Amino acid sequence: NRYERAEVVRALGKEMGFTNPFTVVSHPRATQEILKLHEAFFKYQFKVGAIYLKEHQRCEEEIFGNQHDSMRFEDFLSHIAKRVTLKGFKGFRGGLDAMSNQTGTESYYTTWRGNEIMFHVSSLLPYTYEDPQQLQRKRHIGNDIVCIVFLDGPTVKFKLHC
After folding, report:
1. What is the pTM of this model?
2. Which of 54, 122, 129, 158 is 20 to 30 A distant from 151 in Cα terms?
3. Inter-CA distances, 89 with 4, 13, 117, Å
4. Percent of the chain whose predicted confidence (pLDDT) is above 70
5. Which SS3 state, helix, strand or coil, does residue 85 take?
6. Cα–Cα–Cα angle for 120, 123, 124, nearest 5°?
7. Phi, psi for 150 (deg, rounded to 5)
8. What gap in Å lies between CA 54 and CA 122, rounded to an integer?
9. Are 110 and 50 in contact (CB under 8 A)?
10. Is 113 left (phi over 0), alpha (psi -120 to 50) or beta?
């Protein structure tokens, strides 16, 4: 221990303007309670977008308009997650509807090192015929922590426009 815990607590109290000195108390459940607090403030659940891009697609409307994907894309997803039925799904849903299929019927889900990951797969989210921009799909994928863009084809190119 480089620092004495009690001294650190007292110094912090002074800096914060507390007039009563802190008393360091040792409690047998302190570690468990601190871990509960830690879990309340740190996320272990993540939403990841998976966008399918095929040959000759250049604009957002074409990319988010894919109603079907390929066996290669599904094979890739099956290597990183498990395909799950959303209705009745009990794990982390990542904002997807698990009661009435309003956000699709299936998706991909995995756990990794204690973290839950739900994938928002562009081609599995509902397609809206009257919306060429597919705003519902973009709404989910646009709020994800990271997006995987799967380039399906030997000459597929992707340019990120910010």
Report:
1. 0.72
2. 129
3. 48, 46, 13
4. 84
5. strand
6. 60
7. -90, 115
8. 12
9. no
10. left
Asked if 24 contacts 9 with a C-beta cutoff of 8 angstroms, the reply is yes
The distance from CA 115 to its chain's CA centroid, rounded to whole angstroms, is 10
Which pLDDT tens digit goes with each residue over 48-94?
Answer: 999 999 988 888 899 999 999 999 999 999 999 999 999 999 999 99
- Going by DSSP bridges, is the β-strand pair 82-85/146-152 parallel, antiparallel, or unpaired? unpaired
Contact 100, 89 (CB under 8 A): no
35 vs 124: CA distance, rounded Å: 36
Expressed in angstroms, the distance from the first to the final Cα of the chain is 48
Residues pairing with 105 in the sheet? none
Contact (CB, 8 A) for 86 and 107: yes
